[in-house]
Design goal:
By secondary structure, the chain is mainly alpha-helical. The protein has helices at 14-32, 44-49, 55-58, 66-78, 80-86, 88-117, 129-134, 136-142, 161-171, 177-192, 198-201, 206-215, 217-220, 237-262, 275-278, 280-283, 316-324, 329-338, 343-352; strands at residues 42-43, 123-124, 147-151, 155-158. It has 19 helices and 4 strands.
């Protein structure tokens, strides 16, 4: 679903896995035990007037709405890339810092709304929502946007579009969800930019991280995915074909990038790769082979028919892979002979010609 984060599941993301399991499990328990839901209501009025400070902890962790829990879980699963990139301790420090900052910003925005519109905000949606919205700040700034397709020729669909759609769905699920979203974005921007040295003030201590590493991480760690079988069991032929093509496209892009860097000081000739040089036997068949002695009766006039390709050994496994992708066996043999059995170059040539 989310192409920006890969398909490695929750490997090296124990904190995200723990949040998904624990918070969603508590949400299910509160649905089954509705008599305890009042303890987890995020009531600003109760905190401000009745001094029930404990509601800041209970009301800002567990979702009481299934839709909010589902959308926030999808976002946490997508944002697990930050835990892999920054490490569990730094990712936990970001969540803790934005959680603390957003609690203060919630009250400031609520009082500003009351001052402008003379309406008191008594309750806000419960759950770990503001820190989830704060993760959109590093997501927008550090994750590159890659186009996937176009709709109606003008609307671009990128690898980040679905994430924003889920965030929009979460934003419109409750009347005052916009206040939590704005609070999360403000706190995320302040903490991510390290304004007022917030990253040195609010963070997870080393000893807490060590305790979590030896006690909690073994409980929520995921096994390393098996990269030897990327196609999966039970995949249809079309899915296998598409996944193989995607893998080859990634390898080809890397090869083209390396080739472009090597030829950066050369004069470009029609693209990153000079196919005339890489595939001489397909462009001008017979030019790179030893000249064939003509028959005595044909020595007086030059032949206009190029000789056929010689029978160089070709791996049948690579031919079968190209045939499985939909190319004919003759074209596969010619491309592999021309590319010296390089499956990546042969595939790219067949796709473009």
């Amino acid at each position: 679903m989310f192409t920006s984060t890969g398909s490695r599941g929750l490997y090296k993301a124990p904190l995200c896995k723990g949040l998904l399991l624990v918070l969603n499990g508590l949400t299910v328990m509160l649905i089954l035990l509705p008599q305890y839901q009042d303890m987890f209501v995020y009531s600003l009025q109760a905190v401000a007037h009745q001094h029930q400070v404990w509601r800041l902890l209970c009301g800002r962790l567990i979702c009481l709405d299934v839709k909010d829990s589902f959308c926030s879980s999808l976002l946490i699963y997508n944002f697990r890339i930050f835990e892999r990139r920054f490490g569990t301790r730094k990712f936990a420090s970001f969540l803790l810092g934005t959680w603390v900052l957003s609690a203060l910003v919630d009250f400031l925005l609520a009082h500003a709304f009351q001052f402008l519109f003379e309406y008191e905000v008594e309750e806000l949606p419960a759950g770990l929502l503001a820190p989830v919205f704060s993760l959109f700040v590093p997501f927008y700034q550090s994750i590159p946007r890659m186009p996937v397709t176009q709709v109606l020729g003008h609307i671009h669909i990128t690898n980040k579009t679905l994430v924003y759609i889920v965030g929009l769905q979460l934003l419109t699920s409750s009347p005052f969800m916009w206040l939590l979203a704005l609070s999360g974005l403000i706190s995320g921007g302040l903490y991510h930019s390290n304004a007022l040295w917030l990253q040195k003030v609010v963070f997870v201590p080393v000893w807490v991280s060590s305790v979590g590493k030896y006690i909690l991480e073994p409980l929520f760690s995921s096994s390393q995915p098996n990269d030897e079988t990327p196609l999966g069991m039970g995949a249809t032929l079309d899915i296998q074909r598409q996944q193989r093509m995607d893998l080859l496209d990634q390898q080809l892009l890397l090869a083209q990038y390396n080739e472009a860097r090597r030829n950066v000081r050369r004069q470009p000739q029609g693209g990153l790769l000079q196919w005339t040089r890489l595939f001489p036997s397909l462009r001008h068949r017979g030019q790179n082979r030893p000249p064939v002695q003509p028959h005595p009766e044909a020595q007086t006039h030059q032949s206009t028919q190029p000789p056929l390709l010689e029978n160089s050994p070709v791996a049948e496994e690579q031919v079968a892979r190209l045939v499985e992708m939909g190319f004919s066996r003759i074209d596969a043999l010619e491309a592999l002979r021309a590319s010296n059995n390089d499956i990546n170059m042969a595939t790219n040539f067949l796709l473009q010609h």
